Amino acid sequence: MNPVLDELIALLSLEWIEVNLFRGVSRDxxxxxxxxxxxxxxxxKAAQNTVEDRNIHSLHAYFLxxxxxxxxxxxxxxxxxDGQSFSAxxxxxxxHGKPIFTMAASFQIKETSVEYQEQMPIATPPEQLxxxxxxxxxxxxxxxxxxxxxxxxxxxxxxxxxxxxxxxNPRKREPIRHLWxxxxxxxxxxxxxHHILMxxxxxxxxLDTNLLPHGLHVLDSNLQIASIDHAMxxxxxxxxxxxxxxxxxxxxxxxxxxxxxxRFFTRDGVLVASTMQEGLLRFR
Length: 284
What we know:
twelve-stranded antiparallel sheet, Porin, 5 helices, 284 residues, 12 strands, alpha+beta
């Protein structure tokens, strides 16, 4: 397997230290905080470790405090309920004796019923697009080490933006972004791996979409940006090592906050997951 992808899967795996208690580690991403997608993926893994024969279908999470990447994170799982079809779990992530993150998640046995979905938007196929690294180019070479660490977040994935953002001179435009993505190598069939990797990558660029109509960018040093909450719904089976179109749309910016929603489609137009996030968008 691609070593960078293998490293990420290891990062999202947890040490089982006691019944319902798990320990995770973090990586330095060039900021003073832990990447939210990492905590989200690890929390799903912790909850899934307490569930048998059921896969996650929804989660609702809150980021409470900045995570410290130099300290381990303890995940405590509450086995709220196990019914005939659904299992409910609550997860608290703890550092230095305080909760930094909470999540409620639901798991379901595999069932079938009526089927409907919204349509996939028309987008240029990935084969006709440049990689995100092509757009960074010289900027990445001249960038400080901290920025290089931040951009390493997407190294385990291939990413091809349909409408690339000019990082040097961003212009005002509609708050819509289309991004093709997939894991950098073939993955095992275990659906848990695909779920936690999608959760990890869903935090990438979603909140930034709210900056587009203002001509702002996440690298603007005058902005303070942080995730407040994150929700996801997994609709259908998928593989994240196949191309997925991540459609991100800004919904609202007000009160120093922004709300954005995202949808994941397969190349065949199948809607496999949806997500929404609210985050802090504050001028320093």
